[in-house]
Write a structure and sequence with these properties.
single chain, 332 residues, Isopropylmalate Dehydrogenase, two-stranded antiparallel sheet, 11 helices, 12 strands, binds 1,4-dihydronicotinamide adenine dinucleotide
Length: 332
């Protein structure tokens, strides 16, 4: 059996890094059949919108997607293609692991964190209005339903993956209703999983203590905006956006993607590091239960990083996309 996956090559370095990933997955014998779909610049040219219905329909049909980075056209009143994707497909789980890999410049040793970001609410609902000419109200939405489903997903993930403790991060002292409800709901769900340690922490205290000692934390669960910010902080702890994968998961579909952007400064030059998209694709393999293939790819990645010879410049090497990709394929 083969999994049919919607592939969105994306903009800038997107086609280079997704292309490299497809080559490596094929070499590893991953049972995947790709169906390419447009989004971003290509979709703007063809359909006049960055996230066309044809692409959403393909993901709904296949239930799995791998996505390269997308540029969002400036002006013109378009929603960000990434936000549109999450909202249209109700991909409520933002899953962002951050782990120290070998020889990554600037990484703290031994970091192994998993962050869950609620993807659908908060300030991202985009509800703002001017009350007077100099006063704007921006609404932060927060429902018990959203808090419950992300909490439950996180606890189930922890149970399945053997993670030991989780912290709910909030600012309930300032937003006792919205953040307070998120925290209360988290605690209610936590009570159903007595074998997993749980706690909570203010998002400000977290920002202080996380860089001082990342090993104090294991799994973090946050509302949308805090999750957006803290997940980048976590990426910083392990060497930056070039090495962290991501997934957006809903009840009916899951889309895996790197967190970095289109890197227009190096696009088309063969310099892009494919690791973040490759690790995202590996998360997809684990998600569907293809553990053995995922493990093989992971071991090959670690070997190549440890040898360091063929890695790209952002990882301190002299290689390009092609040499890095070939080195991983050779290790496989
Ligand atoms: P960026 O992540 O594209 O680039 C920041 C820096 O990191 C650049 O110096 C770039 O060369 C480097 N970089 C990023 N990915 C790399 C890789 N795989 N290998 C080697 N170097 C890499 O962020 P920036 O410049 O803020 O955004 C550029 C465009 O990307 C914008 O249009 C933005 O809207 C879009 N973007 C898209 C995202 C997505 O689709 N998920 C996420 C973030 C930005």
């Amino acid at each position: 059996m083969k999994y049919r996956v919607t592939l969105i090559p994306g903009d800038g370095i997107g086609p280079e890094v997704t292309g490299a990933t497809c080559q490596i997955l094929a070499a590893a014998g991953a049972p995947i059949e790709w169906e390419e779909a447009p989004a971003g610049g290509v979709a703007m040219e063809q359909y006049g919108v960055p996230m066309p219905e044809v692409t959403l329909a393909a993901i709904r049909r296949n239930r799995l997607g791998l996505k390269g980075p997308l540029m969002t056209p400036k002006g013109g009143g378009f929603r960000s293609a990434n936000v549109a994707l999450r909202q249209e497909l109700d991909l409520f789980v933002g899953l962002r692991p951050a782990r120290t890999l070998p020889n990554v410049p600037g990484a703290f040793p031994g970091v192994d964190l998993v962050l869950f970001r609620e993807n659908t609410e908060d300030l991202y609902a985009g509800i703002e209005h001017a009350v007077t000419p100099d006063t704007v109200v921006s609404l932060k939405t927060s429902t018990v339903r959203a808090a419950e489903r992300i909490s439950r997903w996180a606890f189930e993930y922890m149970r399945y993956r053997g993670r030991r403790s989780v912290h709910c991060c909030h600012k309930a002292a300032v937003n006792p209703l919205g953040d307070g409800a998120f925290l209360d709901t988290f605690r209610k769900v936590a009570a159903e999983y007595p074998f997993i340690q749980n706690g909570d922490i203010g998002v400000d205290s977290l920002s202080l203590t996380l860089p001082l000692d990342p090993s104090r934390y294991d799994v973090l669960i946050l509302q949308n905006l805090y999750g957006d910010i803290i997940s980048d902080l976590c990426a910083g702890l392990v060497g930056g956006l070039g090495v962290v994968p991501g997934a957006n998961i809903g009840g009916h579909a899951a889309v895996f993607e790197a967190v970095h952007g289109t890197a227009p400064d190096i696009a088309g030059k063969g310099l892009a590091n494919p690791l973040a998209v490759l690790l995202s694709a590996n998360m997809m393999l684990e998600y569907v239960g293809e553990w053995k293939v995922a493990e093989r790819i992971e071991r090959a990645i670690w070997d190549v990083l440890e040898a360091r010879t063929h890695v790209t410049r952002d990882l301190g090497g002299t290689g390009g996309t092609e040499t890095f990709t070939q080195a991983i394929i050779d290790r496989l």
